[in-house]
Specification:
GO terms for molecular function: structural constituent of cuticle. InterPro entries: Insect_cuticle, Insect_Cuticle_Struc_Prot. Keywords: Cuticle, Signal. It holds the Pfam family Chitin_bind_4. This is Cuticle protein. With about 110 residues, the protein is α+β, with helices and mostly antiparallel strands. The chain has a domain of about 70 residues. It contains 1 helix and 5 strands. The chain has a 5-stranded antiparallel β-sheet, with no helix packed on it. It is elongated.
């Protein structure tokens, strides 16, 4: 068993010497970008959108919007950076509406 472990360690060390790129750590500079998209399909009641912007410092600012089944619109505005991480602000527009409950079966009759 010890021979197998020793052989594995030797193979790892040999691979690291043969492929020095595995030892390097890469630092990528942030690349600014922005995008936006939206879907509004009345027959299927799909209504949502997303937009996001990133600057050269790596800070990301964005928001997305979703039409909820209860009739409200949920909007999430967020920022992402290296120090604070993901910080979101969630807002709801409108009032939740639920249809009246109407059972589709006959009432149970006691005999």
């Amino acid at each position: 068993m010890k021979v197998v472990i020793f052989a594995a360690i030797v193979a790892i060390v040999a691979a690291q010497e043969q492929y020095p790129a595995y030892k390097q750590e890469y630092k990528y500079e942030p690349r600014p970008y922005n995008f936006a998209w939206a879907v509004k399909d009345e027959p299927s009641y799909n209504d949502y959108a997303h937009q996001q912007d990133t600057d050269a410092s790596g800070k990301t600012v964005g928001s997305y919007r979703v039409a909820l089944p209860d009739g409200r619109i949920q909007t999430v505005t967020y920022t992402v950076d290296e120090y604070s991480g993901y910080v979101a602000d969630v807002q709801y527009t409108g009032e939740a509406k639920y249809p009246e409950y109407k059972p589709n079966y006959p009432a149970y009759k006691q005999q």
